[in-house]
Amino acid sequence: MGRAGRLRWINGRRDGARCWDVYEALSGQPLSRLLEQPQSWSVVRYWLLDVAQELAAATKDGTLPPTLLLSRVWITAEGRVKLLDFPAPGTEPARDNAESTRPDQSPLGPASFLLQIATAALHDAPDMKPLPVEARALLNGLPAVEELNAVGEELKRLVKRTPAVTRARRAAMLCTTAGIPFLLAAFATAGMCLMNQWSEGHPEIPELRYCLLYLDWNVKGQNVHRQNADKRPSPEVEREALEIYIAGKFRPIITDRKRWNSFMGLTIPQPQRKLAERIVAERPAPSDEQFREALATLEPVLKEIAEFRNATQEMPPAAIGGIQFVAIWLIFVALAGLIAVGAFRRGLIMLMFGVDCVTCKGALASRPRMLWRTIVFNAPVLLAPLVLALVFPLMRALTPSLLAMAGALVVIAVWSALLPVRGLTDRLSGTYLVPR
Question: What pTM does this model have?
Answer without folding.
Answer: 0.66
